[in-house]
Design a protein that fits this description.
208 residues, alpha+beta, 4-stranded antiparallel beta sheet, 54% helix
Length: 208
């Protein structure tokens, strides 16, 4: 009976030990699987983080390029607008000078004679046209014309479109500095009667 008990006890211990061993192996397998999974997940996270960083860097580069392109485009548009305004001013002054030439042609008793093409000169507000013409190669004054025009298209046959005046060659006439083109600013060509710019004055000169 004692031997049978010992054999039974020994068998039980052996089974118990085997169960523990199997349990340990199973737990070890689970642990290794979990560890491997964690390593894999960590690798995926690391890869994902690297991809995100690469995308952020690419986006930042694209954003910088876009901002630079927009800044360059804005600068070009500003430059084009400034050039357009300057060109508009130049054309407006040219139109005024052509009007002055026409006014001189109509104000000259002889119709414009002499060995050279006759000249239109800006009238200094404090001096006479006789003085201004006399200091140039176009030394003879035929007229002192003051002209102005309103903006916009005529809408009726009674609407005033402009003004003109002939002060004569011998007197400075109206000495308002606003009538002196040389003393005006480039944008002043767009001013009108509302700002006191009633006229611009010109001397009609020819070579004797």
């Amino acid at each position: 009976g004692k031997q049978w008990y010992q054999r039974q006890s020994t068998g039980t211990q052996s089974k118990h030990f085997s169960f523990q061993l199997i349990t340990m192996k199973f737990l070890r397998a689970i642990f290794l699987a979990a560890l491997l999974s964690a390593v894999v997940e960590a690798s995926k996270v690391k890869k994902l983080r690297a991809e995100i960083e690469a995308l952020e860097e690419a986006f930042s580069s694209v954003l910088e390029d876009t901002e630079g392109a927009l800044a360059n485009l804005t600068a070009r548009l500003d430059a084009m607008e400034a050039e357009r305004v300057e060109l508009d001013q130049a054309h407006a002054w040219q139109a005024l000078h052509m009007a002055a030439a026409a006014a001189c042609r109509g104000s000259t008793p002889s119709g414009g004679t002499g060995p050279w093409g006759n000249a239109v000169l800006a009238k200094e507000n404090t001096r006479s046209c006789a003085q201004i013409c006399g200091e140039t190669a176009f030394n003879l004054c035929d007229a002192d014309v003051s002209i102005s025009g309103y903006r916009g298209k005529a809408e009726s046959y009674s609407q005033r479109l402009g003004h003109f005046y002939n002060y004569g060659c011998g007197s400075p006439g109206n000495q308002n500095a606003k009538f002196d083109e040389v003393k005006a600013g480039a944008p002043d060509v767009f001013n009108d009667m509302a700002t006191g710019n009633w006229y611009y004055r010109f001397c009609c000169c020819r070579k004797q």
